Structure formats: C-alpha cells, structure tokens
Amino acid sequence: VVTGINAGAQPYWNAEATMLMHTRGILIMTPVSAMVLTGKEALDFSGGVSAEDNFGIGGFDRIMGPNGQGQYWAPTLGAACELLYRHYEHTYVVPGERCPRRADTTDPVDRDVCEAPHTPVPGSDFTRVGDVFSPERNPERKKPFDMRSVMRAVTDFDREPLERWKRWEDAETVIVWDAHVGGIPVCLLGIESHTVRRRTLAPAGGPSAWTAGTLFPQSSRKAARALNAASGNRPVVVLANLSGFDGSPESMREWQLEYGAEIGRAVTNFRGPIVFCVVSRYHGGAFVVFSKPLNEQMEIAAVEGSYASVIGGTPAAAVVFAREVRKRTQGDPRVAELRAQVEGAAEGQVGALRAELERVRQEVHAENIGQVAQEFDAIHSIERARHVGSVDRIIVPADLRPYIRDALERGMARQPSTR
Question: Which of 15, 52, 124, 315 is the most buried (most CB within 10 A)?
Fold first, then answer.
C-alpha cells in the first residue's frame, strides 16, 4: 500500500514485489500517493524532464494506473486496508491447505445463468445473458455482448467481485476479477466482447478501436500477469470469446508476439486447475496459447452452439479458399450472362455493361464468401473440436455455472494436499 511520495529505492522494492511478469503481490495507491525515481525538484534542478508535481511523474491517475503498474486505487488509506483484506479473502492459504478457504454462499450452484440481466452495449439488443447463447437471437455468435454481464452471472451473487488493473490503458479487452463460484475463490478472466473506444489517439498503423474478442499487446500482458499471479494459489477460470491476436503494425511493434507467448508460458507453468470455457468463439492464436497440451490440468469446455477452429469461417473463405470463391463467382449464371453481353455488345454499350458486370461480380463474390464461410464453420464445428481433442466437453448454457464448479472441484482434488 503506497502512502505519500515514495522516492528512489522504495519504488523499486514495490516493483520487485508487484510489477514483474511473474510476481504475485498487489499494489494499492491512493490520491495522495506517488512513486518517483527522482522527485520533481531534483529533476528540475538537474535539467531533467519533470511534470507540474510529483503526482504527474508517478501518481496513480496519470501514470501508474494507465500503465498497469498500480493495480488498485482506494480513496483513503483506510479504504486501501479494507481492499487489502478483500484481496486476502480470495488469496490467503492457511499453511498445510491446498487453496484459499471457501466462502459461505446462499447462491445456488445450479442457478441458470441465462436468466441473469445483460447490460446493453452498442450493436446489441440483448437483455438477458441467455440471449448471448440463443440460436434465434445470436445464431452465429457474432453479435457484440457485455462479457462482464456473463462473468457476473457465473459468479456468486452474494459476493462482490474485485477487479484488478481496472485503469490499465490499452488492456481493456481482458477483464481480471477475483471472485467466488459456488463459494470457491477463483481468478476469473473474461475477454471483452464488444468494441471498446480507445482512450488515446490511434497511430496510423494501429486499430481505431479495440475490437471484440481480440487480444492486443497490453491485454495479452495483462492476461499473462493474472495467470502468473494466481499460479500455485487459486484456480483460474477463463470465459472466452476469443478470435485471436491483433496483427496490426502497431501491435507487432508493441511486442504482441512476446506478450502473446507470455500467456502460453504462464499456462505451461501454471500450478493448479485452469477451467477454460468457450462462450462464443475460439479461433486463431487462442488455440496455441490456451492449448491443452501445454498443461494437463487445463479443462476446456464450450457452450453449445459455439465455434472453434484455428481460423474463423469468414477469414478462411476470403484468404484460404479465395480460389474457390473466385471459381464460384466466375461460374455464377448472373456473372456469366453479363460477361457474354459485354463480349457481344456494340462499342457504345460496352462501358455501361462492364460497370454493371463489376457491380454484380462484387455482389456475387460477397455472397460466395458468406456461403463458403458457412460451409467451413459447419465442418469445423464445436463437435469436431471435441472429436479431435481440442475441447473436452460441450455443455448447455443452463449448465455453465454448475459445470465450472464441478470442474474446479475435479481440478482441486488433483492438487497436492500440502504446500
């Protein structure tokens, strides 16, 4: 808990305990706390670059919260101590026991998450969490939804989750909660599933917004740090709508490969149960960094109607099966008829017919991309993923909460009896 201005060596002690990729400690800051290596007056005197005050160099609001080094904010020192005790409720392990002790809960384990409310998000009219899984309202699982609503539906209603790294800029697509499921303390990760506006200006080589179901460099780093912090302490539950990693020039320049690989390393080194639940889609690099061969204690389930493949149907149709799409487009009767008209037209009519041919060709091309994408998704279904071993089981939406609790019980039973 940082109180007042920490200068020089003290911030490094704080960093050693809480900021490195493998560390488990938490760092709580208040409005009157800052961590600086050199204070404002000393920087000004030596000709260095400073800010208007020490808070502009190392305070939570402008520096440590947005860069992910300050993990929690509290309005007062007393509130910081209360927050610390809330953290211990999820993480303290009595010597000789396997995991943090369970909490009492009156929330039924077999409660149907579908009846929980869904917070409105742009582009979606869902009012219940069950709408996310509905074959009528979301048949392709592509509509945006609020992942926090799903996370809250899964966790115990009578215990408020504790969100870590809430102010971390550019890491908004990963949500990290300490929560309880059936009274069991867990680290709960969710992948945000609607577009999130960027808080800073987007560079020319980067996305204009953080897209749904996508990991960006800082969100990858956040996920890896959360896994490492929970390893050997408490189970991890991941609720995944994950289409992969962003591959823009900005992301590649900002260590996307390195931070994405850190997730794989964290999964490999994780000690304890990992329960990975696909609630919508599971594509791309997610198959690599959240792969069962990396950790035998990981159990992967998918909600009925989800999609799982190395590449999604639409990208596969546009890139992998581009030749097939072109072949179908060229063979379409509408395109063939217009092409014949162009070849036999008088000179004055050729221009207009060519323009019409190009318009129809683009329309038919889009239709064929959709058709090939549907065929790909039908083959690379969640049932096929289970058949080849990428997914352990498929569950109905109403069983999501009881399944997670049972999977946690199975995983915890395999842990050593003492630490």
Answer: 124
Task: Please give the single-letter amino acid code of residue 171.
Answer: A
Of the chain, the end-to-end C-alpha distance in Å amounts to 27
Tell me the Cα Rg of the chain: 25
Alpha helices in 92-144 (DSSP H): none
Specify the pLDDT at position 318: 81
* Both tokens assigned to 158: 């009578």
Percentage of the residues of the chain whose pLDDT score is greater than 70: 98
How far apart are alpha carbons 250 and 391 in whole angstroms?
A: 32
Interhelix angle 350-379/322-331, nearest 10 degrees? 130
Instruction: Output the pLDDT for position 45.
Output: 81
Task: Give strand pairing partners of 73.
Answer: 29
Residue type, 3: T
Q: How far apart are CA 18 and CA 36, in angstroms?
A: 16
Alpha-carbon span 73 to 59, nearest angstrom:
11
Residues 289-307 have pLDDT tens digits of 898 889 989 999 999 988 8
- Identify the burial level of 348 via C-beta atoms within 10 angstroms of its C-beta, where 0-12 means exposed, 13-18 middle and 19 or more buried: exposed
Q: Is the pLDDT of residue 87 over 80?
A: yes
Evaluate if residue 214 carries a pLDDT over 90: yes
Distance CA 232, CA 265 (A): 15
